[in-house]
Sequence to fold (168 residues):
Amino acid sequence: MSATHFDADDAREDRARELREQRARLRGGGAVPAEAVEEALTPPAPSRAPAIVPTTKIKVTRPMSPGGLVTEPAPDAAKIGAFEVVTELPPRPKRRMKPVPPARQEMIDFCLQRIGVWVKYTPTPEQDKASPSALATHVKKATGGFVEGFEFSTRDGAIFFRFAGVKS
Fold:
């Protein structure tokens, strides 16, 4: 490596540090010292102190003196730089299910009434946009209007369905 490589690395580190400080100012806080980030990421050293069983709040222990420990509750959401420690995850957003096309629903209802009868399904793209392979996946996963007990078969690009029984 030449001296220019080291200069480029130093310039890159300076730009990164300036960006971190600028982001910290935009968030409303001052720059987070590198020591604080390092301390937050470093696992605690093993000690002979009894293990603390976490309850609803996280407990932080730090040595006070060689003879004892100080235990204090940590805040529920400690913010450190660009991330924060949380005690539990937020709930997942609910997925919106697409409505089953009327032509497919009509075919499914027909099959449910006539157990074991094979039906060739050939809708126009306006009636049902799903391809035969996508419909096969819906049958395997029991989604898209299909329930447990449906079977499918493909022949020459066409797809055939039947309800074999035992509706879940």
